[in-house]
Specification:
Elements: E1 4-10, E2 13-18, H1 19-67, E3 75-79, E4 82-86, H2 94-117, H3 137-152, H4 160-170, H5 175-200, H6 203-229, H7 234-237, H8 251-260, E5 265-269, E6 275-280, H9 281-289, E7 308-310, H10 315-323, E8 329-332, E9 338-342, H11 344-353
Parallel strand pairs: 2-3, 7-8
Antiparallel strand pairs: 1-2, 3-4, 5-6, 8-9
Helix pairs in contact: 1-2, 1-3, 2-3, 2-4, 4-5, 5-6, 8-9
GO molecular function: metal ion binding; metallopeptidase activity
Membrane topology: Multi-pass membrane protein
Cofactor: Zn(2+)
Length: about 350
Amino acid sequence: MTWSFTIGRLFGSELKVHVTFFLLIAWIGISAYQMGGWPSAVENTGFVLALFACVVAHEYGHALTARRYGIRTPDITLLPIGGLARLDKMPEKPGQEIVVALAGPAVNVAIWAALTLVGVDTRFETLTAIDSAEPDFLGRLAMVNLFLAVFNLIPAFPMDGGRVLRAALSLTMDRVRATRIAAAAGQLVALLFGFAGLSGGNPVLVLIAVFVFIAANAEAQDVAMRAVTRRLLARDAMITRFETLGPADTLATAAQAVLHTTQHEFPVLDGDGRLLGFVTRARLFAALASDPPRSDSAETVMERDIPQVPLASGLETVLDALYQGAPAVAVTTTDGRMLGYVTRENVGELMVIQGR
């Protein structure tokens, strides 16, 4: 996720913070200062930081449980609207998906229970005064954890309850249809959140509504795409007619190739047709904007770490490589000569052709 930076590594996953998270902290601190001076600002800022520590614990609940099923979590990112654990993949066995989905809310329930056992005041009235300093600090923290657990169990994507719903539906129908139903529930919930946020003048609720709506749609598209890719090979989706560059070609040559074609990626091949890397439009434009000599070699802006797969590789393997951030995946012969390449765009076009 762009505009995020790593603040540490814990249990094998990078912990990242999105820059907008600090805007939230600043907004809360300034608002609290205007209402009650420095004591209020420190109190409220500390509470939000403690709350997000619980959000991190929630996401690690998912991550560590997924690890039991051999699924890695490369990173966890803190956003103003919560946390996001990026799993390598979601478990597709319904039972495993239910366990992974429930692990996050279970962490919040455990925090609430632990605070209750040590005598913290956890009356439900605390939630109505959550933005004030009247209830004690730990009492507010306990009740917010309980609220997070309940909120995440709403049976709609992308909340954890939506994944439980999808897994339960998958027991009686195919995964694609189950995902569409859970995603539709998520979008309905998003519309309700948006209406409530606009009616009550709550911009945070509107932001959550937008996130939920987009995430639910993205999940449905991803599952449908994977259902198609499991039946296809790299050869079924690869681009076979394309312009290439050579090691000696310059930035000026690459710029002309951009003007004369509709390609977004240009393979750089050696004399034997083996792939050296890709020059992408984005990298080329960034280089030209910095005003280097156009006689410089195009290799200076080339992306070298390009995944390569054999012709008979499954298209799902290609899709996994694209999700890791590669601009394209090269399809090569056994001796390394390039036959074609696959991008996200032409996988999407294949989806349309397949009627998905």
